[in-house]
Design goal:
This protein has two helices and 14 strands, in the order βββαβββββββββαββ. By secondary structure, the protein is mainly β.
Amino acid sequence: MKAAIVGATVLVASLLVATPAHAAPPTSTKGPCGYTTTPDEPPARPVSLPPDPKHTPDKGVVKVLIATNQGPMLLSLDRAKAPCTVQSFLHLAKSRFYDFTTCHRLTLYPTLKVLQCGDPSGTGEGGPGYSYKDELPTDLPNWPGDTTGTRKVYARGVLAMANAGPNTNGSQFFLVFADSRLRPDYTVFGSVDRTGLKTLDRVAAGGTVVSEDNPDNLDGPPVRKTDILIARSLGGR
């Protein structure tokens, strides 16, 4: 199922995938995160389920270096905000799941400005072969002028998970390079540093590849093709 970010001005349809008749039933880890295999959506690259101890580490910040062909990005992962998400992301980085992958989607709508990465297939349809629960933010400010409180500010520098609906987190994530308006349906699990934001600004300035699906140059693969060369944990507290 395609992981997507759905903004107020963006409508993204989920991709329906038939379950093969021979698919094995899902299996889950026994810990509190409950990482669950998705037999109808096999991993885009071989990887095991993440560790799921009885107590998921939920304190401290872990640094992850994302080296790209457009420049480096240093991520700060916040265990307190989203312990299961951080646990999964670190597992995928350690397993080299993100190495030599392409960030497949750049979005340049007035209220949604993000770069989406994390799919080894480069299509937006691939993942790690498992899913896990949301850890949704509760402290995001309301979007200016939104009196309903349903649209929130995902601020410049936020690191969050893309998904295909409730509790469908996998490997795809997005990096926000300008304040964006979204429903609080996407797990925030960290931030990107100033150097990383300069890298994102450089990619965004190049625009998107114009096609029949992207005639307005607002939502598609970046012209400045952005490849993750390595993703490595630097440890942390």
